[in-house]
Amino acid sequence: MRTSSIVDGDAVEQLLLLAGALRSGLIDALAGGEARSVAEVAAAAGADRRATGIVLDALAATGVVERVTEGGVSYRLTPVGKAHLVDEGPRMERSRLLHQVNKVRGWLELPEVIRTGEPASKGKGPRDIATRSLAMGERDPDLLEEVVERCLAYGGTVRTMIDVGGAVGHLARRFSRRGIKATLLDQEAVIPLAREYLGADADAIDFITADYTRSLPAGPFDLVYFGNVYHIYSPETNARVTREAFSTVSPGGVIAIQDYILGRSAQAAMFAVNMLRSTVDGGVWTEEQHREWLRDAGFVEIEVVDLDSASTQLVLARRPRGL
Asked: How far apart are CA 117 and CA 136, in angstroms?
C-alpha cells in the first residue's frame, strides 16, 4: 500500500473545485451570508440542480461551505469561505485561485512546449489578463509592506516613484499612502482595472498607458520599481530596459527590481518552467545577470536582498548623484 505521493492530488482537485464554483456563480449565490437551499443556489447561479447539490457537498467537505440541516437542508459560506472568496481583505484570494487554474491550462500543454520550444496557447485572452492583474492585487500585505520599507530604507528621501508594469496598483497605493507621489504604468487593458481596484486611492495616483519595453516616461522619478516583470522577457530586453531606466531615475535615485533570482530563490527553477510555457523568451535570471545589467547601465551601490515574506529577491541600485 502506497503511504505517500510526490504530488498532492487532493490539493489539485480542491483548486479546480473552487475555481469551478467561482466561475459557475455558486460562490456568489451564497455571498449574501444567508443559508440557501440547493434549488435556490442553482436558480441564482443559473446552474443544474443536481450538479449544484453535488458540488455544494464537496465544498462543505473542504470547509468553504457549511451544510445546515435545520428546517431542511441548506448551505451557507463559512467564515473561511467568505474571507478567502468574497470579502475584501488580506485573506482574499479569489482572483489568485482563478489565475492558478488559468496557469494549469497552459501547463497541460507542457509536452508540446517541450517538443517545440514555443509557449502554450492557453491563458492569453482578455479574461485571463484581467484575472492575472487582479490576482496581483491579492498579494500578501506583509510582502508589499516589506518591499516598501526596504525601498525607502535604501533610497532615503523618495518623493516620487513609478511602478512599471504595476498591474492594479496594489504597490503604488502603498507608496502613495506614505505621501509619495506615485505613478502606475501598465497596458491599456489593465489601467481601467487598476482605477476600479484602487477606488478613491486612484485620485492620488497618476496613470500611464504604455508598453515599457518600447519606451519609459522621461521622469525623473526618485524610485523606479519593476516588480515581477523581468521574468517575462529575455536578458537582452532586460538589459536594454535597464539602460533606458537610467535616465528615468533622478540623480541619486533608485531602481528596484523584485523577482525570482536563479541560485537564490528556492522557487526559481520551477518558475522558469512557468515562463517557458507562457512567454516567448522569458525566464528567471541569475544575480550576476542583474548586476551586469545594472553596472552596464551606469547604476552603482548594487544590493540583492532575500525577502523575509516571500521566496523572491529585491535588487536595489542607485544612479550616481552627479550623473
From this structure: 27
pLDDT digits (tens, 9 = 90+) for 224-271: 999 999 999 999 999 999 999 999 999 999 999 999 999 999 999 999
pLDDT at 14: 95
DSSP assignment of 243-312, as one string?
HHHHHHEEEEEEEEEEEPEETT-TTHHHHHHHHHHH-SS---EEHHHHHHHHHHHT-EEEEEEE-SSSS-
* 152 and 109 belong to one structural domain: no
What span, in angstroms and rounded, lies between the C-alpha atoms of 58 and 52?
10
One domain, residues 47 and 151: no
What local confidence, expressed as pLDDT, does residue 122 receive? 53
Do 48 and 117 have their domain in common? Answer: no
**Domain contains 154:** yes
Q: Is the pLDDT of residue 121 over 70?
A: yes
Task: Describe the strand order of the beta sheet including 181-186 as a list of residue ranges.
Answer: 205-209, 181-186, 160-164, 221-227, 249-259, 313-318, 300-306
In contact, 293 and 259? CB cutoff 8 Å = no
Give CA–CA dist 227/224, Å, rounded: 10
Q: CB count, 10 Å around CB of 292? A: 16
**Residues 192 and 297 reside in one and the same domain:** yes
Contact 249, 219 (CB under 8 A): yes
Task: Check the CA dihedral 209-130-200-146 and report its sign.
Answer: negative
Q: Which domain holds residue 41?
A: 9-85
